[in-house]
Amino acid sequence: MKLHVPDMSCGHCRAAIEQAIAAAGGTAAVDLDSRTVTVTGLDAARATAAMAEAGYSATPAP
Fold first, then answer.
1. What are phi and psi of 5, to 5 degrees?
2. Could you report the per-residue pLDDT of 1-55, keeping only the tens digit for each?
3. Secondary structure letter of residue 41 according to DSSP
4. Contact, 38 vs 29, CB < 8 A?
5. 0.70 cut: is pTM over it?
6. Do 40 and 27 form a contact (C-beta atoms < 8 A)?
7. Would residue 16 be called left, alpha or beta, if left means φ above 0 and alpha means ψ between -120 and 50 degrees?
8. C-alpha to C-alpha distance for 43 and 53, rounded to whole angstroms
């Protein structure tokens, strides 16, 4: 699934999100240019919760 994360803008953001998703049991492919994250291995609720715990809000990307 693809999520829009408007608050991410740098390599630190990428690392924090990748680590949060990995800790929850999934994998994340971060695209800083479009500010989207493609998550595999988690459902939407678990992925957004993991990112919220890391300090990032996420919504479904079109």
1. -125, 90
2. 999 999 999 999 999 999 999 999 999 999 999 999 999 999 999 999 999 999 9
3. S
4. yes
5. yes
6. yes
7. alpha
8. 16
Residue given tokens 């990748």 in the structure block? 18
Q: Both tokens of residue 60?
A: 């479904």
Q: How far apart are CA 57 and CA 46, in angstroms?
A: 13
Q: Structure tokens of 33?
A: 């240019």
Helix, strand, or coil here: 8?
A: coil
Nearest to 30 by CA among 55, 49, 58, 52: 58
* Phi, psi dihedrals of residue 60, rounded to the nearest 5°: -60, 135
